[in-house]
Design a protein that fits this description.
heterodimer, A: 8 strands, B: alpha/beta, Rossmann fold, 18 helices
């Protein structure tokens, strides 16, 4: 329960956002701060780890401990921090190029590992910060500055990939629906394990195909009660929906042991709480003589 | 024939999978417990089965550093061993082999008549006693000790330690099989073998490899998190630490790749625990961006690079010191880092503790540069003094003012070290930023902020320098005829050369540069200026340390001995070179 009533503006910093007017990042930024305000966290209570890209620039706009790492490498930093201090609340923010391109390997292995962190991906189907090149989620055939004759590859389906790779919480949100996204983020944070939230968002400057109105016409909410998120085959079906209808909500959820739960050294306390005073390796040394 | 007591070289050769390394390790322990000094060294191809593997164990009454090329006992488990190594055997030496598996023709041994051939039915002895095929090695072990007239009871305790966790039956079986090999030689070899073992009383010593010493040093130094991706010759650090995790409570993580490994280690360090990663040159390539990330965010980090010959996959299971320039300059940008290069297990142990201390106190990145020769070879080593392996903590923000939320983690400070707060700590909120940043950690492109941060990072190296004190190691008499200038494991070969030169009446000494960065320019200058003849000894093609010395001191060594065939320096090579240049 919240210690004091928080407002989402309590998590602003001295730096004003530098995103383009109308950018979907504003919606994600707002939903994130709302979710945290609802949870009543103090700024020192949590760590947000960012990748590099327009999404990562949020490192300057959220009042909390932050780690603005390398392009594609936010996840391992966050996992390392969690394994060192499992009592810390950790949220990771990345983009589609950052997390599904450069950091694709870490994404797959983070899903397998199920460390208890929340991973929110700004998926605008294009590279924004480097000015409009194709991303792993750009639609096939779409011309971009690095693929002027259209993208040849098939796009990655991050939601289906997450389900296939062993994700225990796979959700999709839309930056234009801040209130739904706020709830999804809270559910992701509450989930014991690796929670992945793919957030569809327009890039008003570089993606003139997947626009705000393009998404508005297509997204629909999965209704709890009508859609069961615990069935993996059904989840695949939902995950593969793309085109006329795009589902949002929790696509798949299961409860599995977190990575930290199965590391025997972490059962008693976090590594950070282990004292350095009484280390004595003499018993091990004796085996060498 | 004169008998040689407590000084000989034993070699075993066979295919990968024959278990020869275990045999060598047991012998090293046996002789160390007999109060002698041992070094062992193995050569093996990058294969799991087959190929040609050897292990050498050299024994001496005094501390030894690198083995000789010759040997006195050669255990041949296959024909290749005979063909390749018969020429190395000293006159009077012996080849021990199983004639049921291997016929030795005179041509195979270069028609030598000055060595003995001793057929021991390894396989029959093992299987008659109910042992498996691999226990041929155990027969060979017993047979070898019989030649040396070593008391058999030396074997029993080591068998217990090696096989104890497989049960009493296996221990007994191995002892019986070794005994049978021992007895077979005692009753069938009628001559007097010129080399003998006579156990001595000596304080307890260990037999330990560079990687094992480093893993233990990291643990004693407070390491709590180690992430790595397996790569020869660094893998055994991960294996040793993973094995010991239940005992000491640290966590090891086998990462999906080296990029993840370094970022995991950075994340754990940022959260407040002492953390490290380890790899070889190829993996270090992948870690370079992470090295820069740790530098920019001022996150403490220790990276071990156990070198092997490159470029690229190179010679995966061999040794070289070719990454010196690479690690000095790895990652984009102009920023400081600390590089230590231990020569032996003792230095590897204490320097691992110190690396963690430096990383934490100064928010620095410490690269520990070793190589396959140090990483995987074993040496008889005096026990480590744990009272000298002290954890020195520091660099943390303590008691921030009540009510404070934000903290200027990157504000300037006299020595560049601004105490760091840890996520979760009230009053310490900041952002660690890979972008250039303001004192709070927010991205900035102002020239004032940029200059401040560049200078702040650079200042820390001076602070480290003051903390470290002397970072060269000098050995041997002053005013010697020859001074070896060297680093890392090549120091071991120089030490052995020193022993040999002394016998020949040549005075030599060594300047080992233990820390490459911060470079000990004054100490190196002094030695170079005051030495009669300096010889640079390094295990690479271009004389990288020589270049670094010139860069920092303007001085050049008088001669260069370089080697880049994947093998460490044999002491004989150094001695021959000295004869040529003085």
């Amino acid at each position: 329960m919240p210690k004091t009533q928080k407002d989402f503006n309590d998590y602003n910093t001295e730096v004003k956002p530098t995103w383009c007017p109308g950018c979907g990042d504003f919606g994600i930024w707002t939903a994130l701060r709302m979710a945290i305000a609802d949870l009543g966290w103090e700024p020192h209570d949590f760590l947000v780890v960012y990748g590099i890209g327009c999404s990562g620039n949020m490192a300057n706009f959220v009042k909390s401990y932050g780690f603005h790492g390398l392009h594609g490498r936010a996840l391992p930093v966050a996992i390392g921090a969690k394994l060192a201090n499992q009592d810390l609340k950790i949220i990771v923010l990345g983009g589609d190029g950052d997390g599904y391109g450069e950091g694709g390997n870490h994404f797959i292995h983070a899903l397998r590992g199920n460390v208890d962190i929340t991973y929110i991906v700004h998926d605008n189907q294009v590279y924004g910060l480097t000015k409009g090149q194709m991303s792993p989620t750009t639609e096939q055939g779409q011309p971009t500055s690095s693929t002027p004759e259209g993208v040849i590859e098939q796009p990655i389906n991050p939601v289906a990939l997450a389900v296939a790779a062993g994700g225990t919480f796979v959700a999709q949100g839309f930056a234009g629906d801040t209130l739904q996204l706020r709830e999804l983020i809270k559910q992701a944070i509450a989930h014991p394990g690796f929670a992945h939230v793919n957030v569809l968002q327009p890039c008003v400057t570089f993606n003139h195909h997947n626009t705000f109105s393009w998404f508005m016409k297509r997204v629909y909410k999965l209704e709890p009660g009508k859609y069961e998120s615990g069935n993996k085959l059904k989840a695949f079906e939902k995950a593969l929906e793309w085109g006329e209808k795009i589902p949002t909500g929790i696509i798949y959820q299961e409860i599995r042991h977190t990575y930290e739960q199965d590391v025997s050294e972490l059962k008693k306390q976090s590594l950070l709480r282990q004292a350095l005073k009484k280390i004595d390796i003499s018993k091990t040394l004796a085996k060498f003589s | 024939m004169n008998q040689v007591i407590n000084r000989f070289t034993w070699k075993i050769g066979g295919a990968a999978g024959d278990g020869i390394m275990v045999t060598g390790a047991m012998l090293s322990k046996i002789f160390t417990r007999a109060g002698l000094w041992v070094t062992d060294y193995s050569e093996y191809p990058s294969l799991i089965r087959g190929g040609h593997n050897t292990q050498v164990v050299q024994v001496d009454e005094e501390q030894i550093f690198t083995h000789d090329q010759g040997n006195e006992i050669l255990v041949a488990l296959n024909e290749e061993t005979v063909r390749l190594h018969a020429s190395e055997i000293s006159p009077g030496g012996v080849i021990i082999y199983d004639d049921a598996r291997l016929k030795i023709l005179p041509a195979m041994i270069g028609n030598r008549e000055d060595i003995d051939l001793m057929a021991v039915p390894f396989q029959k002895i093992a299987s008659d006693l109910g042992g498996k095929d691999i226990m041929r090695n155990t027969v060979a072990l017993g047979a070898s000790l019989a030649f040396l007239d070593a008391p058999f009871n030396l074997i029993e305790g080591v068998m217990q330690d090696t096989f104890g966790d497989k049960g009493e039956k296996i221990v007994k079986l191995n002892i019986n099989i070794a005994r049978a090999g021992y007895d077979f030689v005692k009753s069938n070899f009628k001559k007097t073998f010129p080399w003998l073992i006579k156990p001595k009383k000596q304080e307890t010593h260990m037999v330990i490899s560079g990687n094992e010493a480093m893993a233990l040093g990291l643990l004693q130094g407070g390491l709590k998190f180690y992430a790595a991706y397996p790569m020869t010759p660094a893998s055994s650090i991960l294996i040793t630490l993973a094995e010991l995790a239940p005992v000491y409570g640290h966590v090891t993580k086998h990462a999906e790749d080296e990029i993840a490994a370094v970022n995991l280690a950075i994340g754990a360090a940022f959260a407040g625990v002492r953390s490290a990663t380890g790899t070889s040159g190829g993996g270090f390539c992948l870690m370079t961006e992470g090295l820069g990330l740790a530098a920019e965010t001022e996150t403490p980090l220790v990276i071990v690079n156990a070198q092997r010959p490159g470029p690229s996959t190179g010679l995966p299971t061999w040794t070289e010191q070719g990454d010196l320039r690479f690690v000095m300059h790895a990652s984009q940008g102009d920023f400081p880092r600390v590089i230590s290069a231990p020569a032996d297990p003792t230095q590897a142990f204490y320097e691992s503790v110190r690396a963690l201390n430096i990383a934490e106190k100064f928010h620095m990145q410490v690269i520990m540069l070793t190589d396959k020769y140090l990483a995987e070879s074993h040496w008889t080593t005096p026990e480590f003094d744990l009272t000298k392996a002290k954890i020195e903590q520091g660099g943390f923000l303590e008691n921030p003012p009540k009510g404070q939320v934000f903290y200027q983690r990157y504000a300037d400070s006299p020595n560049g070290v601004t105490p760091r707060s840890l996520p979760g700590q009230p009053g310490g909120v900041f952002t660690a930023n890979s972008d250039e940043h303001s004192p709070l950690g927010y991205s900035t492109e102002s020239s004032e902020d940029r200059e401040l941060q560049v200078e702040k990072r650079a200042k820390k190296l001076e602070a480290v320098k003051a903390f470290l004190g002397e970072t060269v190691v000098k050995e041997g008499p002053e005013n010697s005829d020859v001074t070896f200038v060297t680093w890392g494991s090549a120091t071991q070969s120089c030490r052995e050369a020193l022993r040999k030169l002394k016998v020949m009446g040549v005075n030599a000494n060594i300047l080992q540069i233990l820390y490459i960065l911060p470079f000990p320019a004054d100490a190196v200058s002094r030695v170079l200026k005051n030495s009669k003849k300096t010889i640079l000894v390094e295990n690479n093609f271009s004389g990288q340390l020589g270049g670094v010395i010139r860069e920092f001191t303007g001085l050049k060594c008088d001669a260069e001995l370089l080697k880049y065939d994947g093998r460490p320096f044999w002491p004989e090579e150094i001695v021959d070179f000295v004869k040529k240049v003085i």
